[in-house]
Amino acid sequence: SAVISQKPSRDICQRGTSLTIQCQVDSQVTMMFWYRQQPGQSLTLIATANQGSEATYESGFVIDKFPISRPNLTFSTLTVSNMSPEDSSIYLCSVGRDSNTEAFFGQGTRLTVV
Amino acid sequence: AQTVTQSQPEMSVQEAETVTLSCTYDTSESDYYLFWYKQPPSRQMILVIRQEAYKQQNATENRFSVNFQKAAKSFSLKISDSQLGDAAMYFCALGSGTYKYIFGTGTRLKVLA
Hints:
Chain A is mainly β and 114 residues long. Chain A has strands at 4-7, 10-13, 19-25, 31-37, 43-49, 56-57, 68-72, 75-80, 89-96, 104-105, 109-113.
């Protein structure tokens, strides 16, 4: 398994500002992902965090809005930029290690934009 | 495109009874995995059970079992002897070996004492 620490667990932010969410894993992992879960809805993949290169974004998500860093195999950050109330969601970090195991999730960051 | 459909937004079950949550999916991949995750109010996504598509035998984990119908692209979760702690959102997910999961919309399970 993998132990994932996500910070902050929650935050309330002013519109127009940015928030950086951190994801720390207790061991090296191959794959790291960021998901968004809007209120009462399912999880939607934002991007794959690639170690040493630019993140790979899913349709509807762009780097200017959600810049991602992954400096090593145990750590990644997601920034939500120029926030609006529509960005109020839970953001979850997910990791995978081997091809035959399931993905593990952090406890999520609940973001409220006012 | 891959899709996952959960047609039951909410289900209720009496404590100690059995409940089945439905999930259908669509994929053109021949090698894929299916998962049921539980999300309690703590927001932590917890893996309940997984099924490899190439395995014909249905997966079981203690009180949790699945009915995997590959031809029908159906993957239902059965919870036996329901407990109060089973109350949560349950998400069905489809993956094709890259951990990029497609999630269903979820089913909220209520367990009645």
